Amino acid sequence: MSYEPKFLSAGDRGLTVELGDSVNEATNAKVVALDNALSAQAIPGVVEMVPTYRSLLIMFDPLLISKEALRQRVLSCWPPDAAAASRYRRWTIPVLYGGEAGEDLEYVASVHGLSADEVVRLHAGAEYRVYMIGFAPGFAYLGGLPERIHTSRRLEPRMRTPASSISIGGEQAAVWPPIEIPSGWHLLGRTPVKTYDPLRREPFLLAAGDRVVFAPISAQEFTTLSAAADGGDPVATAEMVDA
């Protein structure tokens, strides 16, 4: 059964377009496709669009476009061309696993009866989908964590989590921004990549619909790449993929 868009008011300047009632890749692909379709129209009055797991938040100027007019613009391009969202960026993100960089790696391994190396192989052997950016600037929520290492969140959250941590929580994985924030997720490692930099032309490195793969690196490589990142090098590499 197809899911028709559901429109929810988000104050006098926001409209949420809900495209599904569960979190899955197919629904998120529709969100990304709708975001792309509306962005291509450059609708006067639309200020910002924020894709999430299963909905698209559209912020607008009510002096330039009404909520009903915006609703009609959404319906005019529904369903969006799914093929337009099938081309994506695949990022390779270097990660220093374990030790001080990944304080919970050994714990996660013990919970699942695995060695730390096996957890790293599983985590780094998967390809992840960026479902959304949220919680903090540049924080990327990822789907695709191998079921073998699904891990309930910490009973007691940390008040401060190291910047640019690589973590897991429940069925999800995440890439943290280069800022310290509270969290109950388990830390597997850290990356020299800065997913958010307000001084960059494009402040956010990752976007909904992107794919991510992780590449283990040594402590020396982490130090070298961190210095490069501090100098403005994105460090992470991306390739365009046609699904």
TrEMBL record:
Signal peptide: none annotated. InterPro entries: CT_C_D, Cyclophilin-like_dom_sf, PxpB. Residues 5-206 form the Carboxyltransferase domain. This is 5-oxoprolinase subunit PxpB. It is an enzyme of class 3 (hydrolase). The keyword ATP-binding applies. Its EC number is 3.5.2.9. It comes from the Bacteria. GO terms for molecular function: 5-oxoprolinase (ATP-hydrolyzing) activity; ATP binding. It comes from Microvirga brassicacearum. Keywords: ATP-binding, Hydrolase, Nucleotide-binding. Gene3D superfamilies: 3.30.1360.40, Cyclophilin-like.
